[in-house]
Write a structure and sequence with these properties.
- Two copies of one chain form a homodimer.
- By secondary structure, chain A is mainly alpha-helical.
- The first copy, chain A, folds into two domains: 3-113 and 156-180 and 356-654, no CATH class; 184-337, no CATH class.
- Helix content of chain A is 68%, strand content 5%.
- The first copy, chain A, contains 29 helices and four strands.
- The first copy, chain A, has helices at 3-27, 34-37, 39-43, 63-70, 73-114, 144-179, 202-213, 229-245, 247-259, 266-281, 283-294, 296-299, 313-321, 344-347, 351-371, 373-383, 385-391, 396-399, 402-410, 412-422, 424-435, 440-468, 482-492, 494-514, 516-528, 544-561, 568-589, 602-626, 630-654; strands spanning 188-192, 218-227, 300-310, 332-335.
- Chain A has a four-stranded antiparallel beta sheet.
- The longest helix of chain A has 42 residues, at 73-114.
Amino acid sequence: MNVSALLTSAAINIGVCVLLLSLYSVLRKQPSNLSVYFGRRLHQALPRRHDPPRFERFIPTPSWILKAWETPEEEILAIGGLDAIVFLRIIIFSLRVFSVATFVCVFLVLPVNYYGQEMHHKQIPSESLEVFTIENVKEGSRWLWAHCLALYIITCSACLLLYVEYKNISTMRLEYIKASSPNLSQFTVLVRSIPWSEQKSYSDSVFAFFSKYHGNSYLGHQMVYWCGTIRKLVTDAQKICSGVSSEDFSNKCKHLLNCGFCGGSAKTFRVLSKESESVKDNVFYRDLDATIKEKPLLFKQEVPAAFVFFRTRFAACVAAETLQSSNPMLWVTDFAPEPHDIYWSNLCIPYRQIWIRKIVTLLTTAVLMFLFLIPVTFVQGLTHLEQLQQAFPFLKNILEKKFINQVVTGYLPSVILLLFLLAVPPIMMAFSSVEGSVSRSGRKKSACCKVLYFVIWNVFFVNVLSGSVISQISVFSSPKSIPTQLAKAVPTQASFFMTYIFTSGWAGLSIELIQPLPLIYNLITRHILRRKDEACNWSYSFPYHTEVPRVLLFGHLGFTFSILAPLMLPFLLCYFLFALLVYRNQILNVYITKYEGGGQIWPAVHNCTIFSLVLTQIIGLGVFGLKLSTVGAGFMIPLIILTLLFNEYCRKRFSPI
Amino acid sequence: MNVSALLTSAAINIGVCVLLLSLYSVLRKQPSNLSVYFGRRLHQALPRRHDPPRFERFIPTPSWILKAWETPEEEILAIGGLDAIVFLRIIIFSLRVFSVATFVCVFLVLPVNYYGQEMHHKQIPSESLEVFTIENVKEGSRWLWAHCLALYIITCSACLLLYVEYKNISTMRLEYIKASSPNLSQFTVLVRSIPWSEQKSYSDSVFAFFSKYHGNSYLGHQMVYWCGTIRKLVTDAQKICSGVSSEDFSNKCKHLLNCGFCGGSAKTFRVLSKESESVKDNVFYRDLDATIKEKPLLFKQEVPAAFVFFRTRFAACVAAETLQSSNPMLWVTDFAPEPHDIYWSNLCIPYRQIWIRKIVTLLTTAVLMFLFLIPVTFVQGLTHLEQLQQAFPFLKNILEKKFINQVVTGYLPSVILLLFLLAVPPIMMAFSSVEGSVSRSGRKKSACCKVLYFVIWNVFFVNVLSGSVISQISVFSSPKSIPTQLAKAVPTQASFFMTYIFTSGWAGLSIELIQPLPLIYNLITRHILRRKDEACNWSYSFPYHTEVPRVLLFGHLGFTFSILAPLMLPFLLCYFLFALLVYRNQILNVYITKYEGGGQIWPAVHNCTIFSLVLTQIIGLGVFGLKLSTVGAGFMIPLIILTLLFNEYCRKRFSPI
């Protein structure tokens, strides 16, 4: 890949982005799309914006950018909660670190790479990208100190900024806990694994236990009930009944008839609506109804879990943090999540299963990570055209055309990878549900970590390793040679990851902005199903489990390629700037905040950044080893040790908060 | 090495043991050795035993064995505390497990090994030991299911017994906490890292903080003071003064004069004793004395650590377990150790240093572990006579004699290794002091773990790996081949480890019984320095940090060699039986219990046993792979997974207690 191919790819993507942005600024002005682009405002029933006149609606304007840029942090905190602030802090942190890194690498490392060998330089557009990477520096060069110095500057600034951010965020967390108006969840403790006794019900056990051991501060408790399957069926049936018999339904049927979308006539529905009356009279149904009233316990079974309320926050905190029983698997207490944050169905999982569920999901995640190698290896093959041509000789003619060649090498692989990756977050979310987390925020955090491991392994490592040594996955069988292997492999993949930034980064942000799925859904409901009520929009919360790993992956790419292929950094900086605007806009307008996670995602972010830094340094070690610069390699070792010590210090200093 | 060499080695050791035991039973009857063999009784001023008549004193009797065997567990608990009981439970657990293992392996695995190949068997005494190991089973043999079955039985019985022991010990711990008479330490919390303020002293800060946040339950506090160097010098000087001027000292001098042990005459000492008066009058000394009285703070400096007393156990528990401050590095609270258990000098270490001290000692321990390779590799060379002969040709004549040959291969290596290993526990103890543990029991536990890692690495792994592939230490560079490498290497080292059991195990126990160092010290003080007072005996507590790793190492050897070289197990069983008697006797008679650690060593024992089991299974995997038994190898994998799951379950179920 040469510079012109890179620029082609960049140009395609910038074109796509500009197109999508213009489209967005037009679409958002259409009153019919209000539920797609202003979901939060609709949900909170805020005063409607002034609709622009019909003509202005079709002129793209950048007003939303200004709005997103100007909104102060306090407003975002009020709207999106601490989670949103923490997410934006990740982007701001990346912006700051990579500003420093770009400055250092473009003005110090890039010239060293370019003039690294005495060679005849072609004109820049037809220059190969490899000339700009560290591969162009000759072995034993004295100029390698520039790379070493750059790595030191990047590490120091990253650590400093990490510390500042962690301190800010922990202060914010404490202020949030202190300042929030007395919140029910702060007085409540979730008790699980209440022991079964034949004499007493669970509720009586809880009462006896807490009035004995926490008599002064115990206020009351609320058992968790399990609605059995029959109960659910009954509730569903009742819902359908009321729905079918309502006036509204026949209206809807008329619409359906009008549009002719369904095959049947409106009569089909009317017949059903009358039959529903007869269902009510059915013997079986009436029996069930009676049983519910006679034996409520059959349909509302007590679960060995309860919420216990205390008189003071301190008592609740003490009850949540201390061991309650001599058997640590009984009377397990924990802080109760916020009411909206509780993941009810997981409260019914017996506590004894949870450790085994965690292990099983962990193993399944690992297996999935390795199974995913198959599509990734295929994608990787596309960037090596020669191999593709050997495998599929009939493609040879097509691939020899220059434009198609550039599209295939520059664009297609990352698009395919992107499509495969789209399936991952829902799978991980399902795994996290199975895992048994009792809060939605905990589930999302767990899914976020899983997706993070997944993308870093499958996007970074697999591409890097299979790219250089295709069909040789056993590279990790010799730990000693890992730095050298990585140092050989990483620079060769610079071009792939640059196009990945264009497609997954820039274009991904535009797609995030334009929200294709809700838009299509909205179009269908409005223009085909002809529904008009604005209340039927779907409101959903911010998908931290997909967006945090994405931003962190780009940060990871930035660190690892910083001294190897500094040409990547300016593009990355553009990505982070664009991301800041887009996500601020989305938090302000689109997503609603259903619950407050309290910014507990930051430690994972911190650890990931430290991992990226250390990996960068290990690759640096390998690179200096390959380039026969013992001084450089020697300087890397204290840097690695200092970075790990810094991480350990931060863990001691901040982690328990 | 053949069977007769093994029996020679065993015979030598049994002879040595019998000799030492007879010597012990004679020595313990001498009234002059009372302070060596009945230190605990003397320390606690128990009624003196009836001294046997002069003639009987020189006849060896086994009465102590009966006494040690018959003492009930309650008495040992009262005498040695929970730590002693836990230590004896380790031996009893090993006895039980290896009884099962010996039964299974001797009657099932040993015949399979012996008749594993169709070969002409020599007479048993001249049969090579390799005939009894798994190396004798031919590849693809159908009889390998016996080894697989044996491993399953051993694992299951070990897990079952581990669970029972863990449950017993946790019950004992809980009963100990419940039943112990109200103990000061249970109402006390150790606070460290009290923040410095210019307005208030540390003491005032503690008072203000705890009366604000724990007003209801706070009772009082005691600051920790640091006696400066000058203060120490003054105290030492005062001690010397009083000592020198005392009547006692001149008496002692006369003794010295009598025995003529020292070069100088008694006058030398008398001159000093008169000068000491003039020291008292010295201007400098008087000044110092005055300063101490005027400015006590100069000599008694407050340290940012305090003991805080609470009204109830519960309040103390809550204060110890909850986070006190928004900065987790300030106001660090923890359960206070028992008064005798406190390691005072470590209380003065600033809390900020502790994490870095831990990391540094960890790294230093790792470095020491690897530096120790040098002597071990040398020792290992001795078991390979051919290599030794090649290296030192002049030894050839000597080594060709049969008896010397047997001594060198069978006895010398483990004696040398033993001497080197003697230096390790004091070093690890020093490391653990530097680490910053605030209690003596914590320090001993930490040293115990360090010694354990050390012996398992240096005695087991290094011997196994360097024995088979001398000068190839880079075996761990390929994780995949570890099972195969171990499977190849471990059986070849069976003879070395059998002799190790004789020397370090049997002879080591006899030496433990006879207590050579205190005995020699006692002889010198009595017969050369002519001191007669029995009070001058040295009393010391049980060295758990050397004995626990030793017992666990033998357990580790037992597990790993169980199916590979079953001939080892009967010898090991003898060791554990002997160990039980010896250690019971020592706990009853010799060691005093200065503090109660509460049996917190058991989790480390549990983890070590699980590690041994999993390693055995991994070696089994390698062995079945080498012997081309895919079924056997396939059966190992679920066993490994189940063992790890069992460990995880135990951690959940018992660990927080």
